[in-house]
Amino acid sequence: MATKSKMIGNRKLKVGGRKSSAFRFPPSATPRFLAKPTFFKATMAIVQKDLAAEFRSRELLSAMLVFSMLVILIFNFALELDIKVRQSVTAGVLWTTFAFAGTLGLNRSMAVEKDRGCLDGLLLAPVDRSAIFFGKAISNLAFMLIVEAIVLPLYALLYNEVRIFQPAFLGVILLGSIGYIAVGTLLSAMSVQTRTRDVLLPILLFPVAIPVLLASVKASGGLLNNATFAEILTPLNLLIVYDVIFIAVAFMVFDFVVEE
Do the Cβ atoms of 110 and 192 come closer than 8 Å? Predict the structure, then answer.
């Protein structure tokens, strides 16, 4: 039987014969849809996906906001004390609210991915799995910061406390939130694979997050009580070291955590 040849690009294919060379795209002509996305693009794609899905459904943010407002109102009626005592417990009340609301958001964030099958799709994507961690962590941090931005004015209105808007206090809240979300995202990815994920995450998270919570309360309370910089420096250093260590640990071990 006669053999015909056909030129495709710079490749010559034999048609009709027993042997034919497999067609491959030259390296310089690799299509866009076959190219592996960069680490930054993969991370931002996950963040955009989470934000778009949440702003469309508003399930996670509404639950976190309602829970936070309930906690603030309960403390408002429970602490019917004088002004000085109220001011002394400001840092503790705020971080208690942030911790419980953040745990609720972390649990729901990964559980929704698992229930809808999106987590399996993310793991099968041709991207570095640490990009999945950073994408989920950034979106969880954005949700927590949105909740904090609404809770702080509400707290200032109920407790007549305006010192919580000073830049240094807001910086401590940001550092504490980063550390809490970093370790929480890692542990939520671990607990979401179990049947008791709703109960397991707080059990795993709170003992590990004690250093960042204590340092945040100490630093926040020191700023509100006009403490010296030397007194605030130790909890601030602890916050920074905690953030760096757990972000690095999550970057290294996330690939093993999500393996079933």
Answer: yes
Angle at 183 between CA 215 and CA 210, to 5 degrees: 35
State the burial class of residue 81 (Cβ atoms within 10 Å of its Cβ: 0-12, 13-18, 19+): exposed
CA neighbor of 63 nearest in space, from 94, 111, 104: 104
Range of the domain at 229: 59-257
- Measure Cα distances from 170 to 30, 126, 190 in Å: 47, 38, 30
Flag whether 125 is in a domain.
yes
Do the Cβ atoms of 107 and 198 come closer than 8 Å? yes
How far is it, in rounded angstroms, from Cα 238 to Cα 225? Answer: 20
**Which distant-in-sequence residues (6+ apart) come within 8 Å of 234 by Cβ?**
218
Residue 160, by phi and psi: left (phi above 0), alpha (psi -120 to 50) or beta? left
Token representation of residue 81: 């004390």
Identify whether 49 is part of a domain. no
**How is residue 22 written in tokens?**
């497999």
The structural domain count of the chain equals 1
What is the full per-residue pLDDT of the chain (260 aa) written as tens digits?
444 444 444 444 444 544 444 545 455 544 554 556 788 888 898 899 889 988 888 888 888 999 999 998 888 887 766 667 777 788 999 999 999 999 988 888 888 787 777 777 787 877 888 888 999 999 999 999 999 999 999 999 888 888 899 999 999 999 999 999 999 999 998 888 777 777 888 899 999 999 999 999 999 999 988 888 888 999 999 999 999 999 999 999 988 887 75
CB 14 within 8 A of CB 21: yes
Assigned domain for 45 exists: no
Q: How many CA atoms lie within 13 A of 75 on its CB side?
A: 22
Q: CA 237 to CA 19: how far, in whole Å? A: 68
